[in-house]
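If you are new to this repository, start here. Below is one unmodified record pulled from the training split, so you can see the exact layout before writing a loader.
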Amino acid sequence: MRRPRLLALLCVTGSLVSACGVLPGTHERHTVTVWLMKDSASQDFLRRFTEDFERTHKDLRLEIRIQEWTGIVDKVRKALRSQAEDAPDVIEVGNTQVPLYIDDGRLADLTLESVRDWDRQHWLPGLAEPGKSGNEQYGVPWYAANRVVIYRKDLFEEAGITRPPKTRDEWLADTEKLNSGGNQGIYLAGQDWYTLSGFIWDEGGDLAAQKDFEWRGALDTPAALRGMDFYRRLQALGAGPMDADEEHPPQAGMFADGKVAQIIAVPGLARAIAQKNPGLEDKLGFFPVPGRTAARPGAVFTGGSDLVVPQNTDDQFAATAVVGALTGAKWDTELARTMNYVPNKTTLAGAVAGAEGVAAMAAGAAHGRATPSSPQWAAVEADNPIKGYMTKVLTGANPATEARRASRRITEALTPPLG
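And here is the target side for that same chain:
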């Protein structure tokens, strides 16, 4: 929001959604510019939200501009420094990107609104934690998605398995039964480090830990090594490649083409599987990644988006009104139902209970996590030592030795350059 603008007709295009109406008495509205990412929300959702927001906020006009993920980090960082009239007042960012923007020191502190108005205590941890710095909240959770187990109901029945497993021990036992007769118990690529992260978190470990303001790799802790050992035992109950991740080759194709009983993926991958093999469409089921006990599902990496407000907005009150509306129960639930997302609060999980895959996601998201909240984490992923570590352990190398080596590389990547 940089200046008041005259009202125009409602307009919706592939790259811009704006809604505006002339009020009696030639009343002028102030424009709030919102950047949202491509495919995060449907055009129909944005149209309905805009109409509702402008109806209930007579002095505001929304201008929603759709952005591409490619190159978005540099574009956001530039926008946070901009004084241009059309600079954004609200920006959607990936949850794991928020620490980078917090480190730049150009985001508005939304702690008061988060505690007082937005029920921060119920937010999904995998979205809320990356948006924090100390006790201050800068990123507000919007929506989430995470991995579940997609399975073949027919192969489970043939193996005499009458219900999905609730614990890791049950999961291993069931997968061993399924891994016979030419079937793979599970297709799990050797470098699926997001899945490994969940097992490590379940054991009480982490990929990296911060102490005295310094980040250090933590794959060599006893808890992290236990997580890797479980991964090794599960991965061995199938023929997934030990030296590749889940996209090389794409696991949807492997599941569709072969006799694979299970994969670990977001539920939306079921559509790709059914497109490749329509005969499987009615045979697919979903369950949360099992935990150590039946009391709760396993931890999972939570992806998704937060909303942030730049410090350089001309009207933080108006910007936070947009954030509050988009992330509030009414429209966050509507977004989740429309796009098959997990809502941003654990208390809203019931809104997606009717969709099996999304319900399984929501159960896991309640205990989800994100990657370490270091602004340098992208440097770790750029030349990811976790992947190489996993392959070496799966091919017989000493886990403790390789974990120490990988942890040293993580530490080096997380150490900011001097000056």
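Two things worth knowing about this chain: Residues 383 and 413 are 9 Å apart (CA to CA). The two ends are 35 Å apart (CA to CA).
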